[in-house]
């Protein structure tokens, strides 16, 4: 199974995202990546090597932000190559990670190509990113809520938008996702993950997201 970690905070969450991926390495993976909201836009680092190498790349690239998502991937649609690694972007506006399989991705890909979207990967995940972008009209939660009924299959997603720098939206259907809430002096922090283990040491306030939530 792939791994997802996402966070929103007032502190730099890149080390938290990377540590979360390290805690999910037991699941196995063939690529990994991190994306953040930084400097008014989206920045990311991706790798087909170990999370330790991704950690070094985030430092070298100067990734630092209070909002971001991260992912470890087992290749299903598309080879284990950097261009297929998550997170995926749409128009440098939407960043998205995804666990699971979208069964109708070919149908959605044809529809989105007809609307002018250019695909840079062979993944079913990039289809979701472009679909959310197509439906985005100033409210990310609304766009995701409108996108998920179009998806057939099992999935958990975490997504953020360049235009809403302090927001990460998660959704699931058939794949696990948890929400973590900061406590004490970290009460304003919020997290999503595919496994509570990813948030160990960050928060013990965990909510298991039910389908339909």
Commentary on this structure:
This protein is an alpha+beta fold and 213 residues long. It has 5 helices and 11 strands. It has helices at residues 14-23, 51-60, 105-114, 125-135, 140-147, and strands at residues 3-8, 31-38, 41-47, 67-73, 88-90, 94-102, 153-161, 164-173, 178-181, 190-193, 206-208. The strands form 2 sheets. A 7-stranded antiparallel beta sheet has the order 3-2-4-1-10-9-11, with helices on one face. The chain has a 4-stranded antiparallel beta sheet with strand order 5-6-7-8. The radius of gyration is 16 Å and the shape is globular. It starts with a strand and ends in a 5-residue tail after the last strand.
Pattern of helices and strands: EHEEHEEEHHHEEEEE
Strand order of the largest sheet: 3-2-4-1-10-9-11
Distance between the termini: 22 Å
Shape: globular
What order do the helices and strands come in, and which of them pair?
Blueprint lengths: L2 E6 L5 H10 L7 E8 L2 E7 L3 H10 L6 E7 L14 E3 L3 E9 L2 H10 L10 H11 L4 H8 L5 E9 L2 E10 L4 E4 L8 E4 L12 E3 L5
Antiparallel strand pairs: 1-4, 1-10, 2-3, 2-4, 5-6, 6-7, 7-8, 9-10, 9-11
């Amino acid at each position: 199974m792939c791994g997802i970690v996402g966070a929103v905070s007032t502190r730099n969450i890149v080390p938290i995202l990377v540590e979360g991926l390290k805690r999910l390495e037991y699941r196995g993976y063939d690529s990994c990546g991190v994306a953040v909201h930084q400097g008014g836009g989206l920045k990311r680092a991706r790798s087909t090597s170990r999370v330790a190498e991704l950690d070094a790349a985030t430092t070298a690239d100067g990734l630092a932000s209070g909002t971001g998502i991260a992912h470890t991937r087992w290749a299903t649609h598309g080879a284990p190559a950097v261009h297929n690694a998550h997170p995926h972007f749409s128009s440098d506006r939407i960043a998205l990670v995804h666990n699971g399989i979208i069964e109708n991705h070919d149908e959605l890909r044809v529809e989105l190509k007809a609307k002018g979207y250019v695909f840079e990967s062979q993944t079913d995940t990039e289809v979701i990113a472009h679909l959310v972008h197509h439906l985005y009209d100033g409210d990310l939660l609304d766009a995701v809520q409108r996108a998920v009924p179009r998806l057939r299959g099992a999935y958990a997603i975490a997504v953020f938008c360049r235009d809403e720098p302090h927001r990460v939206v998660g959704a699931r259907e058939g794949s696990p996702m948890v929400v973590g809430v900061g406590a004490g002096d970290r009460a304003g922090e919020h997290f999503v993950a595919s496994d509570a283990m990813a948030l160990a040491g960050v928060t013990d306030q965990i909510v298991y997201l039910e389908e339909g939530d």
